[in-house]
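Report of the visiting student (M.T.), summer placement. My assignment was to run the structure pipeline on a short list of targets and document each run. The first record concerns Glycosyltransferase RgtA/B/C/D-like domain-containing protein.
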Amino acid sequence: MRKISRSTVVAGLLLATMASLLVYRASIETTITDESPHIVAGYAYNNLRDYRLNPEHPPLIKMIAALPLSFQNLNFPINDASWQNDVNGQWDAGNQFLHWSDNNPISITFWARVGPILITLLLGVIIFIWTRKLYGAYAGLFALTLFVFSPNFLAHGVFVATDVGATFAFLFATYFFIKYLQKQNNKNLLIAGIAFGIAQLMKFSLILLIPYFTLTAVLWVILKHRPLKLISFATVKRMVWYFGKLILIGIIGLIIIYPVYYYTTSGYPIEKQIHDTKTILENSPYPTLANAVSWMAEKPALRPYSEFLLGHLMVFQRVTGGNTLYFMGEVANNAWTNYFPIIFLLKVPTSFLLLIAIAIIIIWTGWYKQTKIALRIAKTFSERLKKFRHMLAQWGSEYFVELALLVFVAIYWLVSMLSNLNIGLRHVLPTFPFLYIILAGILANWTKRNTLLRNLNFFQQIKALVTYIFTRWFKIALITVLLLWYFLSSLSIYPHSLAYFNELAGGPRNGYKYAVDSNLDWGQDLRALAVFVKKNNIQNIKLDYFGTASPQYYLQDKYEPFNPLDTSQDKTGWIAVSATNLQNGRGKPVRNFPNATGYYSWLNKYDPIAVINYSIFVYHIE
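After the run finished, the structure tokens were exported:
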């Protein structure tokens, strides 16, 4: 029997800790904005084999989330207009299913979150295994610790949403693709294709794997085969061979996709699918593609792929249209190029930023020393240039995995910064595990034991050993202190991890000043507001709520909808406003934002009586 290593035991304890933290959060937070359509859609896929709801996201995460619900005696709103008549009536159907069909929304939401929690933990397993394989046990545990206590993964790891699932899929598919490049055989090719197919069923942004895999394959040819000429018959022949393998991976992926979409569309009446598809794509900015997708919906054998492509087109339409967003005092419906860099600086622990800075300094100083010594030998400029190119190629070949990981981070961040959708740091979460692995490798190498003392005399060995002990343990102590800071900073806000903002932002109490929506307020605290109302014996509260949970269900007759644009509505008494709605109504409109803002400026002269878990502001106005 194979003995379990100590690092595996520690990793198991870390993941068990994360599981307990996630399960508790899953039990106390309200269904967030995106969860109600995802949950009802997943239930419909599994039990009715009908894909009419939420086609803008692939089915796999929703199906996994809804699996525990299949064993419960739940009522589905099959006669409601949102199901029978509406085109993609996901929001109303979700509300009906959760709140008004004699079901328990708290129980449904909790059990639906079990699947995403398992995906989150599986992501941690991959991070640990791959990092340990590359750099050793301590590095694996370091990377896993960054993941387990990340406030952003503790926040998003419970939700029935696509972000952590996409993060898992990117790392999962990349791992097996690089494994295929390193050991090219039919088995690894098949596994890479299966992983690619599974990834496409997680989130449509996984389409980025196509250019990423292509670029990675090109780099493999250039760095590993070292062609004398980039443009030569032999190089082109090898490139074509690799592109052929990429096409095979894509074909395997398409084969994996088909049965899942076939199952989820087999109960979807073909007339309804054709009608819904044409209605959704009626004003598509891509009419040729829209017509092709509509044509495919009419062909029984192609219906599954029609839904798959429909989802892609819906995502393109949404990104093109933008989203109303508050960011640092401004409101717009198109993107800020600096949005993700600034949000990253404010929403990851400050200690993590310092670890990245240390890693950059380590790489830069090491590279500078090597190049300085190497280039000093070369006499002419052409010799130096040739030497420099040789060193780059040698470095890329030796550290190909690290280069491939960095290429992914660069591609993903570039696409995110140029996109027209800025609604949360969650959209760049897929790059985080790649950063954890790279960081663990750099710091593990920086603190490794030094064994090069054999050729020194006794006194030189003593001097070198003392210097080594002090420097190595200083490095370890520095990293330990930063990890401890990371741990304390993250858990200081738990279980309200979604509202995490670091010390640079002034902590979570100041977070709403910078960004809202899924950075802070995703509708998760409606149940907490209901507890506040009951505890303070409030008989009536006006609420402007950002979310898809039902205030009427949780607050019952104490709830009064509040519309800040209704000048006739009384603005006294107890008033609660979600942070997202509050900031959208106080920000300055920029870049031709078409709607009026300033409708919550009148609240500036009042201090809130309470702020519910950083996300709902409660006022009492006489």
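The mean pLDDT is 93. Residues 181 and 246 are 11 Å apart (CA to CA). I thank the supervising group for their guidance throughout the placement.
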